[in-house]
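can u do me a favor
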């Protein structure tokens, strides 16, 4: 089974599930921006997929669990349309762009492709605020597995101590807290949740955690081999790994306004569980496609 073109499945210990397929990578291609404020423009990562504008509806019923943490009321597990609706409710002028992706697999002779799914959403506001959201792949409905929020100097932020205090007032006592000099004055706060799960990161202050990467053909055995690295850290089941929210703050000194804020929210356990389902689904689709081709095979005239 071959997933996508130039396929790479990266499961970060923070829970990032990022699956790429045919098309230019987002880091080298500018996202398509909508021409109308509040509209949603779609950039396709799938060959020959047209650019479309998606309507966002409201009235979703997904509720974030009481024991989870949120960023602007958005939490892991939330469906894509609800995420977009929350952004538009917060700022009707927000610019939202989408990226679609799909998987390719073989019937033994030809490459086939799954229907496109929403892989990623990016958003930008006029107040120097940027968001990025990654969603789980089929066969299930897309769920938010990773999000980032970046605030720049134009966001009119307070000094670092006041900002860190506000974060702790909102999210509670962090599982990790650091404030010190690193060329400039920086601060890092991290919260692991829900209660009862354990931190699976190599270092609490590590921005991305332990990254597990797989390329080419992916199977259950290879996924389990990668997850073994987590078990070697003393965690028997990836489902026990905590989700986390981390905030990295940077400024010149303690009296100046904060220059930049980078917030990340992610769930490794959710990412692993959904990746297993995706791999099994693609294996099944390929097996069915191969069986169908063989069943319809014909001996030529001899």
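np, heres the sequence
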């Amino acid at each position: 089974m071959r997933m996508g073109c130039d396929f790479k499945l990266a499961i970060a210990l923070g829970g990032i599930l990022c699956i790429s397929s045919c098309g230019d990578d987002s880091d080298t291609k500018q996202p398509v921006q909508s021409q109308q404020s509040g509209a949603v423009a779609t950039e396709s990562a799938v060959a020959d997929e047209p650019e479309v504008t998606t309507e966002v509806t409201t009235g979703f019923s997904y509720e974030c669990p009481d024991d989870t943490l949120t960023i602007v009321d958005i939490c892991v597990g939330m469906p894509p349309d609800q995420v977009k609706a929350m952004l538009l409710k917060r700022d009707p002028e927000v610019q939202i762009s989408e990226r679609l992706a799909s998987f390719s697999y073989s019937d033994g002779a030809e490459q086939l492709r799954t229907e496109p799914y929403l892989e990623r959403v990016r958003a930008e506001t006029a107040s120097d605020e940027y968001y990025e959201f990654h969603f789980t792949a089929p066969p299930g409905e897309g769920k938010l597995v990773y999000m980032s929020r970046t605030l720049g100097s134009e966001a009119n932020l307070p000094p670092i101590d006041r900002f860190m205090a506000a974060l702790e007032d909102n999210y509670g006592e962090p599982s990790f807290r650091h404030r010190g000099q690193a060329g400039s004055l920086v601060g890092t706060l991290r919260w692991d949740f829900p209660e009862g799960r354990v931190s699976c990161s190599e270092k609490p202050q590590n921005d991305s955690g332990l990254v597990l990467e797989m390329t080419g053909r992916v199977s259950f055995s290879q996924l389990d081999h990668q997850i073994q690295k987590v078990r070697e850290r003393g965690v028997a089941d990836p489902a026990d790994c905590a989700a986390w929210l981390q905030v990295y703050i940077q400024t010149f000194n303690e009296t100046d306004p904060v220059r930049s804020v980078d917030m990340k929210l992610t769930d490794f356990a959710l990412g692993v569980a959904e990746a297993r389902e995706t791999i099994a689904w693609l294996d099944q689709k390929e097996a069915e496609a191969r069986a169908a081709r063989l069943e319809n095979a014909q001996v030529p005239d001899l």
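The longest strand covers residues 184-193. hope that helps!!
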